[in-house]
Amino acid sequence: EQLPSERELMAFFNVGRPSVREALAALKRKGLVQINNGERARVSRPSADTIIGELSGMAKDFLSHPGGIAHFEQLRLFFESSLVRYAAEHATDEQIDLLAKALEINSQSLDNNAAFIRSDVDFHRVLAEIPGNPIFMAIHVALLDWLIAARPTVTDQALHEHNNVSYQQHIAIVDAIRRHDPDEADRALQSHLNSVSATWHAFGQTTNKKK
Questions:
Q1: Which of 14, 64, 160, 191 has the smallest number of Cβ neighbours within 10 A?
Q2: Which long-range contacts (CB under 8 A, 24 or more apart) does 154-157 make?
Q3: CA–CA distance, 129 with 38 (Å, rounded to integer)
Q4: Which range is the signal sequence, renumbered to this chain (predicted)?
């Protein structure tokens, strides 16, 4: 459904064109309207990505406070624990093959930190895709983006060691999913994420001591 023209909105609300355009831009950011050049704005439904994206500023502010990262890591643990149990119970052969391919790319990226981070994110993304729920995907992408942005800068050597550990833990997760063992998949996932949290906490402590 189309909204009235800018001129009609200006007359209806008794405001100037800048105010109307600012309001429309805000609605667009929230995913509530679609704006194309030369056309009237149209009402639209917000996507899952748009809804989660609206929380980004608040999430990043929360992460900057003491305990913020730990709370988000716990949220990720609870969330991915459910995902991995679902995968072990319901993943198709094709979905397990996609996990195996993501794992292979993981192994090929061990000596390149930037590439490994991308392959690590992709591995967990494939896991989040298995239920086929777009809201899960939006939450997963946002959680990782927020947590990665909050991580400290560390040396390449330290990251190389961390990469190898994470890769071995990914293998354990995939093996359990392939065996359709939700309890073992959950244990492997929790061991992995707890290890990741502890490692980055240690990196952060080391970085703070050097300041």
A1: 14
A2: 154/203, 154/206, 154/207, 156/113
A3: 37
A4: none
Instruction: Say which DSSP state 47 is in.
Output: P
Token pair 């240690």: residue:
202
Q: Identify the pLDDT of residue 162.
A: 85
pLDDT above 80 (res 67): no
How is residue 111 annotated by DSSP?
A: T
Q: What pLDDT, on a 0 to 100 scale, did the predictor assign at position 190?
A: 96
Residue 98: how many other CB atoms lie within 10 Å: 18
3-state secondary structure of 43: strand
Taking the CA atoms of residue 148, residue 186, residue 49 and residue 105 in that order, the dihedral angle to the nearest 10 degrees is: 60
Residue 79 has pLDDT above 80, yes or no: yes
Strand-pairing partners, residue 42, are: 2, 34
* CA distance readout (Å), 70 to 9, 64, 87, 162: 46, 11, 25, 19
What sign has the CA pseudo-torsion 172, 177, 179, 184?
A: positive
Q: What residues contact residue 56 under an 8 Å CB cut-off, 6+ apart?
A: 142, 146
Per the CB < 8 A criterion, the answer to whether 27 and 40 are in contact is no
Domains with residue ranges and CATH for the chain: 6-43 (no CATH), 48-202 (1.20.120.530)
Specify burial of residue 33 (Cβ count, 10 A radius: 0-12, 13-18, 19+). Answer: buried
The predicted-structure confidence for 121-156, as pLDDT tens digits, reads as follows 999 999 999 999 988 888 888 888 877 777 767 777
